[in-house]
Design goal:
The protein is α/β, with parallel strands linked by helices. Helices cover 35% and strands 17% of the residues. The protein has helices spanning 33-46, 58-65, 84-94, 110-118, 131-144, 170-183, 201-204, 213-218, 225-231, 256-267, 283-291, 303-316, 342-349, 380-392, and strands spanning 26-30, 51-55, 73-77, 100-105, 123-126, 157-163, 189-193, 233-235, 239-242, 272-277, 294-299, 324-332, 353-358. The termini are far apart.
């Protein structure tokens, strides 16, 4: 919490700038009064806008940003930190995409400076603070905000869910994965239902579809951060939903370029973008799957599902090697003796299931708002979902899967 006695009052905007709603343009964590005073003077002089200077170092910044939205420009004090690069990597893990970071410290070492730049820091200023150098660093950061050269170097991860056939539960898994990443891993998540006429994501979350997605896809040049924040529904502090419920009597056509523009704009603002893609052979949907970091094929143990998974994979191809095709077997155990076994599925599909979700017919019965989401409750479904989430985040789970027998 900021000390009223020690920290300056929030900086008032002195120049009109276009800032996306909900994010502060500037936030700083400094450890001493001299640095605080120099920083306050520079920020006021450069008219960076409404912002806050807080007492504390990079550890406090990590703790704060784990619970609050990231600013556009972040200044952190790494003075006295034994492993500054390790702490910067921790900071990158909690920052939203597009944050420009200036580090302040007392070690005047070229090696540290280079390591910080490689870690994604925009600039490093050595104490005692030279106002001119600090002003230059802040000006450079204004130019870098929103670019891939900021501390969160990568764009948000794109995860596409597509069902091998209707009724296998692709929407259910997409919704619950989005909820899990937002509420359990504390990431900013965008969930996009690309079935604009028959999509169920909004209903599954007990929210109303919001108007605007159709117009955004029809006019991709209008897509920007401000538009997206206006047309997205929110579920809690970190889950944002784009969905629609267009009349069935209308023909909806949007281009692959429109989908690509929408996805790119979202990836610049969110840690994860999750797409629920209808099984329709259209170029726009195929492009969405091609762009994905992970394309999740959801299948059950029916012969038809196995056949259609083969066809989906063949239509999509292997891509450029950047996309990972992931098989999830849902409703496991539902088919009894007639079900295709996991070994048979792996033999035919030449891909091993990354998650096996047990068949639990009573799991998704309606209840209080929180209980409508299966991932909010403990059980085999949530355990399997958590294991899949770890796979998607690049951190393999060391926990034994519930279906393991050895």
């Amino acid at each position: 919490m900021r000390s009223v006695l020690e920290a300056p009052a929030p900086i008032e905007r002195t120049a009109a700038t276009k800032q996306p709603v909900g994010r502060s343009p500037f936030l700083a964590f400094v450890a001493d009064a001299a640095t605080e005073t120099a920083l306050h003077e520079c920020v006021t002089q450069l008219a960076l806008g409404q912002g806050t200077i807080m007492r504390g170092g990079i550890a406090k910044a990590i703790d704060h940003l784990g619970q609050h939205r990231s600013p556009h420009i972040l200044v952190v004090d790494i003075g006295g930190v034994d492993l500054p690069i390790s702490k910067v990597n921790e900071l990158a893990d909690v920052c939203e995409p597009g944050v420009a970071v200036i580090a302040i410290g007392n070690r005047n070492e070229i090696g540290l400076y280079r390591d910080l730049l490689r870690a994604g820091v925009t600039d490093y200023v050595v104490k005692p603070i030279n106002p001119q150098l600090l002003a230059k660093a802040l000006n450079n950061s204004k130019a870098h905000t929103g670019e891939a050269s900021t501390i969160h170097k990568k764009l948000g991860s794109l995860i596409a869910f597509v069902g091998a056939r209707g009724g296998v539960g692709a929407t259910t898994l997409a919704v619950n994965m989005a909820w899990f990443l937002a509420h359990r891993q504390h990431r900013r998540v965008a969930l996009v239902d690309l079935d604009l006429q028959n999509g169920d994501c909004a209903m599954a979350l007990n929210i109303k579809p919001t108007p605007g997605l159709r117009d955004a896809l029809a006019n991709p040049l209008r897509i920007d951060t401000i538009l997206l924040e206006r047309i997205m529904a929110t579920v809690g502090e970190r889950l944002f939903v784009l969905s629609s419920e267009e009349p069935l009597s209308e023909d909806l056509n949007f281009t692959a370029v429109a989908v690509e523009t929408l996805v790119l704009a979202l990836r610049e603002q969110f840690h994860y973008v999750i797409l629920d893609i209808p099984r329709i052979p259209a170029a726009s949907y195929r492009r969405a799957m091609e762009m994905a970091d992970f394309c999740i094929f959801v299948a059950d143990q029916t012969l038809r599902s196995v056949r259609d998974t083969v066809r989906l994979r063949a239509a999509l191809g292997e891509g450029d090697g950047k996309r990972r095709n992931v098989l999830v077997v849902n409703r496991y155990g539902e088919g009894g003796r007639r079900a295709v076994t996991l070994d048979e599925m792996q033999h035919v599909l030449e891909i091993r299931p990354k998650a096996v979700i047990p068949f639990q017919p009573t799991l998704f019965t309606a209840g209080p708002d929180e209980e409508r989401i299966a991932a909010a409750r403990r059980g085999k479904f949530t355990d399997a979902l958590a294991a899949l989430a770890l796979e998607l985040s690049g951190r393999p789970s060391e926990r034994r899967r519930w279906w393991s027998t050895k």
